[in-house]
TrEMBL record:
Similarity annotation: Belongs to the binding-protein-dependent transport system permease family.
Keyword Cell division annotated: no
Gene source species: Amnibacterium setariae
Residues annotated as transmembrane: 25-51, 89-110, 122-145, 175-199, 220-243, 280-302
Protein name: Sugar ABC transporter permease
Domain ABC transmembrane type-1: from-to ranges: 85-301
The UniProt record lists the keyword Phosphoprotein: no
């Protein structure tokens, strides 16, 4: 009888132990599909690209000679690399700065109590439209807008600002400005939506206390609104910098890096190395260099997020 009782207790204990084990393994089982997907789609391709950048030819069964940093040296001494880096810096810096100003301006407009609900809803719908279009649609739209017979040239000619139509995407003097303007238009809603959410989360008591202390509208904006939005501003700026430096579709679909390389970005430079010159190992090295820059920015972003939390 005693042995049966002990056996029963052992059986119950075994079942409870298995249940606890299953419960402890459940979270890992839930994240396993995502982990496998990330491994296959992200980690493995990155490892392959890094491996290719260290050999004289693409790593296959036949293999290739180990090149060390020779491919990186070739990329860094390529006459097109540093101009592409400068163009990318100008393109990304201008885009992020104007995204921030436009996004904050439109967010303040939509958060203003002076605008009714219906008007706010209409403006929100109109202002978010650029973010809903695909890169192909945006490229086609802006090629039509900035065409020699497009609306921009028509308006400038009628205002007497220009005497003849400008080839916005075809003139080396205006091409970088044109693609930057296009990227600004397509990306500012990201800032607008994020900053609008931040504005709506600022306690009204802070503004009321500043008003009681005699602060005017500008002082309340600079000393209350901006400090409250600063974590969002920094996070959005870092993310936008990462995305903009890797912008490829808009550039490729409008100028292809031309004319005369004035809109050549690191993304198009790397693409041409791989699929125009068929130099896949140097293209891999260029991609790794871009990855290293992105990692530096990503580390800064993670540290900023930890401080904010």
């Amino acid at each position: 009888m005693a042995n049966a009782h002990v056996a029963a207790i052992g059986t119950v204990a075994g079942r409870s132990g298995r249940k606890r084990q299953r419960r402890s393994l459940l979270p890992y089982g839930l994240i396993l599909p995502t982990a496998v997907l990330l491994l296959v789609l992200m980690v493995v391709p990155v490892v392959i690209v890094i491996a290719n950048s260290l050999f004289t030819q693409v790593v296959t069964r036949s293999g290739g000679r180990f090149a060390g940093v020779a491919n990186y040296a070739a990329v860094l001494t390529d006459p097109g690399f540093w101009p592409a880096t400068l163009n990318t810096a100008i393109f990304a810096g201008a885009s992020v700065a104007v995204h921030l100003v436009m996004g904050l301006g439109f967010a303040l407009l939509l958060n203003s109590p002076l605008i009714g609900r219906v008007t706010t809803a209409i403006f929100r719908t109109i202002l978010i439209l650029p973010w809903l279009f695909t890169a192909a649609v945006i490229a086609v739209l802006w090629r039509l807008i900035l065409a020699p017979t497009g609306v921009v040239n028509y308006a400038l000619e009628n205002l007497g600002i220009i005497q003849e139509a400008i080839q916005w995407f075809g003139d080396p003097a205006t091409a970088l400005f044109a693609v930057t303007l296009m990227n600004i238009w397509s990306g500012y809603p990201f800032f607008m939506i994020s900053l609008l959410a931040g504005l709506q989360g600022i306690p009204a008591d802070l503004h009321e206390a500043a008003r009681v202390d005699g602060a005017n509208a500008w002082q309340r904006f600079w000393n209350v609104t901006i400090p409250q939005l600063m974590p969002i501003i920094v996070s959005m700026a870092v993310l936008d910098l990462l995305w903009t430096t890797q912008q490829f579709a808009l550039i490729w679909l409008t100028t292809g890096g031309g004319p005369l390389g004035v809109t050549e970005m690191l993304s198009t430079f790397t693409y041409k190395l791989a699929f125009a010159d068929y130099n896949l190992v140097q293209a891999s090295a260029s991609a790794v260099l871009v990855l290293l820059f992105s990692l530096v920015v990503a580390v800064f972003y993670v540290r900023q997020q930890r401080k904010a939390s």
